[in-house]
Amino acid sequence: MSVIKEALDTIAQSLRERGERNVYTVFDAIPAEHKGRLFTTVGISGMDISRPVYSLGNIYIPFRAETEIKLTSPESAGSAVLLEHFSSCTEPALETMSGMTCRLTKLTLKHDTSLGRLVLCAGFTVTGISIHERTGI
To answer: Among 11, 27, 24, which residue's Cα sits nearest to residue 124?
Structure first.
C-alpha cells in the first residue's frame, strides 16, 4: 500500500471511528448528490517522504502530509452547523489519531456554487511513520 493511500485511509477511518458518517477520500468516484446531506472528504495536497529506516523485520518510512478535510452541507444548514460539526466530531478525531500527529494550519468557509453547498475547508499538517513488514529476508 502506498504511503499516500495509507495516510488517507487512516484519517478517514479515524473520523469514522469517532462517529463521522459519509466520509470519503478524494479518490472515491461517488457523485456529491449520493454522498449524503452532510459529508466529509479527505485529500492530500502535498507529501514529504523521508529516507526509510530498516530493521530486521520492518521498514519505517517517516512522512509529513499536507491534508485537506472538507465538510460539505446544503446551503440551508448554515455555517454554524458546519463549525459545530467540525469542533465536536472532526477535530477530536484527528487529535486522538493513533500513530500520527496533526496540526491545524487553516480553516476557511466558502460557498461552492457548482454544488450549491457550503464547504468548510480545514488544512492540517499530518506527521507519522508508515511501517511495512520486510519480506524476502
So the answer is: 11
pLDDT digit string (tens) for 60-73?
Answer: 999 999 999 999 99
What the block records as the C-alpha cell of 121 is 475547508
What torsion, rounded to 10 degrees, do the Cα atoms 123, 74, 12, 5 define? -70
**DSSP state for residue 99 in the 8-state scheme:** T
- Closest of 67, 91, 66, 71 to residue 22, by C-alpha: 71
Residue among 119, 120, 124 at smallest CA distance from 101: 124
Q: pTM of the full predicted structure?
A: 0.84
| β-strands 58-74, 23-25 pairing | unpaired
> How far apart are the C-alpha atoms of 113 and 110, rounded to whole Å?
9
Tens of pLDDT, residues 102-118: 899 999 999 988 878 99
Task: Give the CATH number of domain 3-129; options: 3.50.90.10, 3.30.420.10, 3.30.70.1700, 3.20.20.70.
Answer: 3.30.70.1700
Strand partners for 124? 67, 104
